[in-house]
């Protein structure tokens, strides 16, 4: 395999000139750059990624840490982030913490040992110990979807409170008053905001909130199935459901069908985020959809800026809040 010394010898230039030319740096004439690139291509020379990494202090890898890669939202996020970083000649290392907050610090330490240039993360943990860890981390980090209290990091998200406010207001306009809310753990940033959106819409409309109809299903389809099956077995059933995630909406729909109820005839159903093949699921679920492409593009652009800027790590943190949109399906009816 050809070395940089071989390329320099054949091109008749110094090794440092080859290095600068192939990295697009230095006061080198276009003709010299073109000659060096042609010689390198003829000889099959590839710059040493390891050597470049040692010189920069990091490589061209970017960590993407997600809580549940099986969630369609995160799948779309991964695809769009990968597209942006690939155009910048970087590559993703994807880590799935399987919704276990205790795995997050270990995952971040592994990425640091791989000398990644930066990390995009959708965290689950939101405790003081994890916040303290993030405040001391020596790698640029952009948080996406979930925030962590007490840190100063770039953060990209949708207006989470608005997602459930829009769904709840829509159901109230249809005449529903006994509305069930399926949410996540209240210590999760996104779960807390979506619960707040539901409560704000109910209170603004003067609708009493039944505490028994606010249930935690951990953004999990199976847990949502169990909770909805339990609620539909009660004499005084909810007439509508706001599911704070797509997987919980699917679990709720399965429970409605399995118990012999009709959606939307007996129970109206809404959810946050679409699902794959959503158009063939009957009825098509009314959802509030987050602009995943926008979130991914901003997060990827910001981490690349942090990596590429010498003073990037010290720059003030930024927040980007995207606006979701309501998509009316066939899963809701008037009372």
Automatic annotation (TrEMBL):
InterPro entries: HTH_LacI (IPR000843), LacI/GalR-like_sensor (IPR046335), Lambda_DNA-bd_dom_sf (IPR010982), Peripla_BP_I (IPR028082). The keyword DNA-binding applies. GO terms for molecular function: DNA-binding transcription factor activity; transcription cis-regulatory region binding. Keywords: DNA-binding, Repressor, Transcription, Transcription regulation. It comes from the Bacteria. The keyword Phosphoprotein does not apply. Residues 2-56 form the HTH lacI-type domain. CDD domains: HTH_LacI, PBP1_LacI_sugar_binding-like. PANTHER family: HTH-TYPE TRANSCRIPTIONAL REPRESSOR PURR-RELATED, LACI-RELATED TRANSCRIPTIONAL REPRESSOR. This is LacI family DNA-binding transcriptional regulator. It comes from Devosia nanyangense. The lineage of its organism: Bacteria, Pseudomonadati, Pseudomonadota, Alphaproteobacteria, Hyphomicrobiales.
